[in-house]
Write a structure and sequence with these properties.
Oligomer: single chain
Strand content: 25-35%
Number of helices: 21
Distance between the termini: 51 Å
Largest sheet: 10 strands, antiparallel
Bound molecules: zinc ion
Radius of gyration: 31 Å
C-alpha cells in the first residue's frame, strides 16, 4: 500500500472560508494543468478562476472535495491506495455557467446524453460495493491492526448487515477474518455471519489469506495462500469465492488470470497498472476485457478482467467513521479523515459530488453499470456511521432517479458482475502480456520493490521450499507408516504454521519489502518459527525411519538427504565439517565420491562436497566419520582434498587490453576463462555447440535520489537512480579451489584498494559430475553465490553481466516462475533506467540468434538489460529518504545487511537451454534437504529402514504439490452443505487420508520438439510408491470444486476462442487414473489410497 500523491494542499484542518484545495475542471480528453497552480490562484484571488477553457475552483471545508486523483489531493501516507493512475482529475463536461452549487441542472442534461435505456428506468445503475482494505502488515503488525480496527470492522459490519437487509459487504483478507472468527467472534456473531454468507450479503472475494503481490511472488506460493483461505471458507461455510479483488498489488501479472480461472473465478479485478495505459484504456472504454493469460492454454483458462478506473478502490469524501488509532500515533496534528455528516444542508453537495463522479466513471465503460467501490484502507471500523450517512445520499438520489437518470444500490462484487455479464457485450481479448512494471506517474516507476529487503525475499522462498519438502515427507510417512511414532495431528500443526507464515509473507506489502521495520521483524519471526516447527517434524520422521545402525562405531554423524522432486536428481550436496580428514560411506557401507576444502567464509571449518544421485521423493543416507590414523595408508578411498591457487589483488582497469593472460576452468560442458590481468571472468566456451561467448561480471551501484525537497525520490517502492550505474569496487582478489568433484572460483571485490574486507564477492562452481542423462543438469550450469553488503547509504547494488551476444537490448523475464515475457527496451524522457526494470522471480535470459544466456535465481530480484548483450540484476538496496511521513512511519530502507543471493547460469544454444531451463530452475528451487544427526541418536526406536519406492514423473511434468491438507469437508458438495446445516458446532476431524496432488506441465506449446508434447500419466503407476490408489478425483486449483461440477461463466469475445489443450479432447471418465496433461496445464487432484 502506498499513496504516492503530492498535491496542492492548504491547511490540514481548514478554517471555514479558507481554501483547502484547488481543483481544475475541464472537458473530457484534454490535459489539465497542475493543481498547485490552481490552488495558488484561488487562495490568492477569487474562488472561481478561469484559464482558457478550464475552470479552477477553490474548495473550502464547507464544500466537499471531489474524489481524489493524483496531483491535487493531499498526500497522506497513512492512507494508501487512493490515488492511482491518471494525471488529471475526473473531467466532467463543463458548462460555461457552471458553479459548484449549480451542478444538478448539468447532471440532468448529462442524463440526456445517454440515449439508450428505457425512459422509465434510470439509465445508470450504480453498484456501491462496501469494503475495507486491510493490509496484512504494512505500517503496523497484524496484532496491532487487529486491535486498532480489524476487530471493529467485523464486529460492526456484521451487526449492521444483520440489522439492515439492504446492506452488503465484501470481505477480502482471510488471515484477518480467520483471526476474528477463531479468536473474537461470539457464537451469536458466528450464526449471523453464516446467515449473511448464505444470503449472499456478506461476500468473500479473492478468499486468499492475503491480497498477494503479483510481481515478486512465486506462483506456487500464490496458489498456497489462495488454497489456505479457500480451504477454510469451504470448510466453514461451504463458500467458494468467485471473484478476485487484486486492487492494491503493484502491477498485474499474466499468471494471475490463469490461476484464478483454474480456481473457478468468474471475473478478476485489478487496479494498479501503468498510468498512461490506464488513461488510454479509459478513453477507449477498454478497462474490461477477456484476458488470455497463457499462450499455451485453452479458453478454459481465460478470465473476464475489470481494471478499476483512475479512482482505484477508494471513494474519498465518503468516509464517516474516522481513522483507526494505533498505539503511538501522534494525535496532535493528525488528519482525521472524517467527513461532515450528511444533513439536509449538505446533501446537495454530497449528491452532486457523487453523481459527478458516477457520470465520469460511466463514460469509461461499455455497459450502463457502474462499479463504485466504497471504502479505502482501514475503513468501516464503525459501519453504522458509514451506512447511516450513505443511506441518506442514496435514498435522495433514488427518490430522484428519473431526474438524474441514475439508480444506486448496495451491492457485492458478484451483484455487479452478474449485471455486466447479462449485458451480452462482445468483449475485447487481451493476450498473455502482463501489466508490469507499474508506474503511477511519469516520475514514479515502481521497480525498486523488486529488490527491497532482499534478505526477507530470500527467507520467504527458503521457507516455501522447506514447506514443499516437509509436505511430501509427511505425506509419504503418514501413508506408509500406519502407526507412526509421531502424532499426525501434531505433524499437521507444524506444517499448518509454516503454510500460514509463507502465505502471510506473499502480501503485497510483505515480500515486496514495502513495510515498516517492526513489521519486517514480525514476518521474519513467523517464518522462522514455522521453519523451526517443520525442521522438528522432519527430524521426527527421520527418527522414525532411519536404518537401525549396528556396528561398533558410534561416533560421527549420519546425513539423511531427501529429494523433494519427483525426478531423479544428480547433484552435489555440501556439508560443513570441523576437520579435513573424514570418511564418508553410503547406506551399504561403500565410500562415496567426495571432496573436502577449506570453507570460504569460516576459516576454521571445511566444506564437504558429496556427489549424490537420488530418485524422486527418496532418501539417501551417508555416514560421516573422522578418519582414524589406522585407516591412513590402507588404500581405503577417502574424500579428495582440493588444491588452492591464489591470485593477488588486481586493480580495476580503465581500458587497456584484456584477454592476454587467461586461465581455464573446465568441465564436460563448459570452459570458463578467467583473466589474470583483471581477476574477472573473460569468456565461456560452451562445448556442445562449440561456441565461445565473452562474459564479464562486475558489481556496480546506482546512487539513489533521496532528497524529498528536490522532487521525486527513491523509496521502498520506487527506483529513482541519479544517473547511470558506476563500478562499486577498486580491486579484485581471486582464488581457484580445484578438486575432482567441483572447481570453485572465489572472487572478492574490494570497495577501496586497501579494504581488509570485501564488500562484494562471487563464488562460482563448476561440477565435474557424470555426463549421464541424470547428470545433464549438473554439468550444464555455472553455480554462483554472491555476497553483497553492507552497502553505503543511498546505494543500489547490481551485478552486471556483459556479453558479446547481439541482443538488441531485448530481455526475457518470468512471471512468477510460471511463464516468460519478452521485454523490449523502452525510451522515456524522464525515467528510462527504472522503466526498463522488471521482476525476476526465477529466471531471465538474453539471446542472440545462436546463443542464450540464462540466469536462474533462488529468490526475486529486479532485472534489466540496459545495453546490448547486457543483463543486470538489482540485488540489494539501502536508502533513507527524508520524507517526514516515511520517517515517522519507519518506512525507510536502511538495510545494512549482507545478502547471499544464489544464481545458476546456463549458456548454450536456444534449443539446449530451452529444454534445460525449467527443470534447472526447479532443481535450484527444490535442492535436496540435508539433515544431519549424531550417529548415536539413530535407531533408538528400531522401526528400521523401509525401502521406499521412488515416485517418478516424466521430465516435462512437475510434482507441484503432494500434501495432506487436513480439510474436514466431504468432497461431495451437497453432502458437505447438509453436514454444515445439520451440525455446525460439530468438531469435525481433519481428513488425514485425503492427499492433494497437483501436477504441472512445464513447457509452452512449441517450445521444445519433445518436451512440449502432451504427456499421459498413469497416476496408479507413478504413485505406486505411496500405496495402492483407491480413487482419483480432479478438483479445481484450490480443491474446493469437483471440476465436473464447476461451470464458469462464459464471456463472448470479439476473437474466436482457441482450441488448445484438453478442451478439444473428450473428457476422460471421472476417476480414471490415466490423465493427459497439455502444455502449461496445472491439474489438481484428490487421491485416496488404500488403508494399510
Ligand atoms: Zn494494500
Amino acid at each position: 500500500m502506498k499513496s504516492g500523491v503530492r498535491g496542492a494542499r492548504g491547511k490540514l484542518a481548514g478554517i471555514p472560508g479558507e481554501v483547502m484545495f484547488g481543483v481544475w475542471l475541464k472537458a473530457n480528453g484534454q490535459e489539465t494543468p497542475d493543481g498547485a497552480e490552481c490552488y495558488k490562484a484561488v487562495s490568492e484571488g477569487p474562488r472561481l478562476h478561469r484559464s482558457g477553457d478550464s475552470l479552477c475552483v477553490g474548495v473550502t471545508p464547507g464544500l466537499l472535495p471531489t474524489p481524489s486523483t493524483k496531483g491535487w489531493w493531499p498526500h497522506r501516507l497513512a492512507r494508501g491506495g487512493a490515488p492511482q493512475a491518471g494525471r488529471r482529475p475526473p473531467a466532467p463536461v463543463l458548462a460555461e455557467e457552471m458553479e459548484l452549487r449549480g451542478w444538478l441542472p448539468l447532471l440532468l442534461r448529462l442524463g440526456l446524453m445517454w440515449p439508450l435505456g428505457a425512459p422509465s428506468e434510470p439509465r445508470l445503475r450504480v453498484f456501491v460495493v462496501p469494503h475495507s482494505h486491510m493490509d496484512v502488515g504494512w505500517l503496523h503488525t497484524v496484532q496491532e491492526s487487529m486491535q486498532a480496527y480489524v476487530t471493529n470492522v467485523y464486529n460492526t459490519v456484521v451487526e449492521e448487515l444483520t440489522l439492515e437487509k439492504k446492506c452488503r459487504f465484501i470481505a477480502v483478507e482471510q488471515e484477518y477474518f480467520r483471526l476474528w472468527w477463531d479468536g473474537v467472534a461470539s457464537e451469536e456473531q458466528k450464526g449471523q455471519v453464516r446467515q449473511l454468507v448464505a444470503e449472499g450479503r456478506l461476500e468473500f472475494v479473492l478468499g486468499g489469506q492475503v491480497m498477494h503481490d503479483e510481481a515478486v511472488t512465486h506462483f506456487d506460493d500464490q496458489i498456497l495462500q489462495l488454497t489456505e483461505g479457500h480451504g477454510f471458507l469451504y470448510d466453514t461455510f461451504g463458500a467458494r469465492p468467485q471473484f478476485s479483488w487484486q486492487v492494491d498489488s503493484f502491477g498485474a501479472s499474466a499468471t494471475t488470470p490463469t490461476l484464478f480461472a483454474l480456481a473457478g473465478f468468474n471475473a478478476h479485478v485489478i487496479s494498479r497498472i501503468d498510468y498512461n495505459l490506464k488513461e488510454a484504456m479509459q478513453k477507449n472504454q477498454q478497462l474490461q476485457f477477456v484476458w488470455r493469460g497463457s499462450r499455451s492454454l485453452s479458453a478454459q483458462q481465460e478470465i473476464f478482467t475489470h481494471v478499476l478506473d483512475q479512482f482505484g478502490y477508494c471513494s474519498e469524501g465518503f468516509n464517516w467513521d474516522g481513522e483507526a488509532i494505533f498505539p503511538g500515533t501522534p494525535l496532535n496534528g493528525m488528519y482525521l479523515q472524517m467527513q461532515i455528516p450528511v444533513t439536509e444542508d449538505s446533501i446537495p453537495n454530497f449528491t452532486s459530488l457523487l453523481l459527478n463522479n458516477v457520470l465520469t466513471r460511466a463514460s469509461w465503460f461499455r455497459t450502463p453499470h457502474v462499479l463504485w467501490p466504497w471504502g479505502c484502507d482501514r475503513e468501516f471500523l464503525n459501519a453504522s456511521l458509514q451506512f447511516a450517512n450513505m443511506d441518506i445520499i442514496m435514498e435522495y438520489i433514488n427518490s430522484h432517479a428519473s431526474e438524474f437518470n441514475v439508480s444506486m444500490e448496495y451491492a457485492t462484487l458478484g451483484d455487479y458482475f452478474r449485471a455486466v455479464h447479462s449485458d451480452q457485450v462482445a468483449w475485447q481479448v487481451r493476450d498473455h502480456h502482463d501489466f508490469l512494471p507499474y508506474s503511477s506517474d511519469m516520475h514514479h516507476a515502481w521497480t525498486g520493490f523488486y529488490a527491497s529487503r532482499s534478505g526477507l525475499k530470500a527467507l520467504a522462498r527458503r521457507a516455501s521450499a522447506l514447506l514443499y519438502a516437509g509436505e511430501s515427507m509427511f505425506t509419504r510417512h503418514l501413508l506408509l507408516a500406519p502407526h507412526p511414532h509421531l502424532d499426525p495431528a501434531w505433524g499437521l500443526q507444524q506444517l499448518q504454521q509454516l503454510r500460514w507464515a509463507v502465505s502471510e509473507v506473499q502480501h503485497h506489502d510483505a515480500i515486496t519489502g514495502t513495510h515498516a521495520l517492526k513489521v519486517d521483524d514480525m514476518f521474519v519471526e513467523h517464518l522462522s518459527s514455522g521453519m523451526q516447527g517443520v525442521h522438528t517434524l522432519m527430524a521426527s520422521i527421520i527418527q522414525d525411519r532411519s536404518p537401525a545402525h549396528s556396528g561398533p562405531e558410534s561416533a560421527g554423524r549420519l546425513a539423511v538427504v531427501y529429494n523433494p522432486l519427483a525426478w531423479t536428481i544428480t547433484t552435489i550436496i555440501t556439508m560443513t565439517v570441523d576437520f579435513p580428514s573424514v570418511s564418508i560411506t553410503d547406506e551399504s557401507g561403500r565410500p562415496v565420491p567426495a571432496q573436502v576444502q577449506r570453507s570460504k567464509e569460516t576459516p576454521s571449518a571445511y566444506d564437504l562436497h558429496v556427489l549424490t544421485t537420488i530418485p524422486g521423493l527418496s532418501y539417501r543416507h551417508y555416514s560421516i566419520q573422522p578418519r582414524r590414523s589406522s585407516q591412513e595408508g590402507t588404500g581405503e578411498p577417502k574424500p579428495s582434498v582440493a588444491s588452492t591457487q591464489q591470485f593477488g589483488r588486481r586493480l580495476r582497469r580503465r581500458g587497456g587490453r584484456v584477454g592476454r593472460n587467461l586461465v581455464p576452468v573446465v568441465n564436460d560442458c563448459y570452459i570458463i576463462f578467467l583473466d589474470l590481468d583483471t581477476n574477472l571472468m573473460h569468456s565461456v566456451w560452451e562445448r556442445q555447440s562449440n561456441q565461445k561467448v565473452h562474459v564479464t561480471q562486475r558489481f556496480m551501484e546506482y546512487h539513489a535520489i533521496t532528497d524529498f525537497s528536490k522532487g521525486p525520490f527513491a523509496d521502498n517502492y520506487v527506483f529513482r537512480p541519479d544517473g547511470r550505474a558506476e563500478p562499486a569496487w577498486e580491486a579484485v582478489r581471486m582464488e581457484i579451489v580445484a578438486g575432482p568433484l567441483v572447481t570453485e572460483i572465489r572472487q572478492d571485490f574490494y570497495r577501496e584498494v586497501n579494504d581488509s574486507e570485501p564488500t562484494f564477492a562471487i563464488y562460482s562452481r563448476l561440477a565435474h559430475g557424470p555426463q549421464s542423462s541424470d547428470g545433464e543438469l549438473l554439468c550444464h550450469r555455472i553455480e554462483q553465490e554472491y555476497r553483497v553488503g553492507p552497502l553505503e547509504l543511498d546505494r543500489e547494488a547490481i551485478l552486471r553481466t556483459s556479453t558479446d551476444l547481439n541482443t538488441g537490448r531485448v530481455l526475457y523475464s518470468d512471471n512468477n516462475g510460471y511463464q516468460m515475457q519478452r521485454r523490449a527496451y523502452r525510451q522515456d524522457p524522464w525515467n528510462t533506467i527504472p522503466w526498463n526494470y522488471y521482476p525476476m522471480v526465477q529466471s531471465a535470459f538474453i539471446q542472440s540468434r545462436r546463443s542464450r544466456l540464462v540466469l536462474l535465481s533462488e529468490q526475486a530480484h529486479g532485472v534489466s538489460s540496459q545495453g546490448n548483450g547486457q543483463v543486470e540484476v538489482l540485488l540489494h538496496r539501502r536508502l533513507v529518504n527524508n520524507d517526514p511521513a516515511k520517517i515517522i512511519a519507519d518506512l525507510t530502507l536502511n538495510d545494512t545487511s549482507v545478502v547471499h543471493p544464489v544464481f545458476w547460469l546456463l549458456l548454450g544454444s536456444r534449443n539446449l537451454t530451452s529444454g534445460l531451463r525449467q527443470r534447472s530452475g526447479l532443481a535450484l528451487q527444490h535442492r535436496p534437504v540435508v539433515m544431519l544427526r549424531e550417529m548415536s541418536e539413530t535407531a533408538r526406536r528400531g522401526s528400521g529402514s523401509r525401502q521406499q519406492e521412488a515416485v517418478m514423473l516424466p521430465p516435462s511434468i512437475h510434482l507441484q504439490i503432494l500434501s495432506i491438507p487436513g480439510w474436514k469437508y466431504s468432497s461431495n458438495h451437497t453432502e458437505h452443505l447438509r453436514t454444515l446445516q445439520k451440525d455446525r458446532n460439530r468438531a469435525a476431524k481433519a481428513d488425514l487420508r485425503r492427499v492433494l496432488l497437483r501436477l504441472q506441465h512445464l513447457y509452452e506449446v512449441e517450445q521444445d520438439p519433445v518436451l512440449s508434447q502432451p504427456v499421459t500419466v498413469n497416476l496408479q503407476s507413478v504413485l505406486r510408491g505411496l500405496g495402492s490408489l483407491v480413487s482419483v478425483e480432479e478438483r479445481s486449483l484450490t480443491g474446493t470444486w469437483n471440476v465436473s461440477e464447476m461451470h464458469r461463466w462464459t464471456w463472448s469475445t470479439r476473437d474466436p476462442p482457441r482450441h488448445r489443450g484438453s478442451s478439444s479432447q473428450p473428457p476422460p471418465p471421472p476417476g480414471d487414473p490415466e490423465v493427459t496433461i497439455y502444455p502449461k496445464e496445472i491439474r489438481t487432484f484428490f487421491i485416496h489410497f488404500q488403508e494399510q
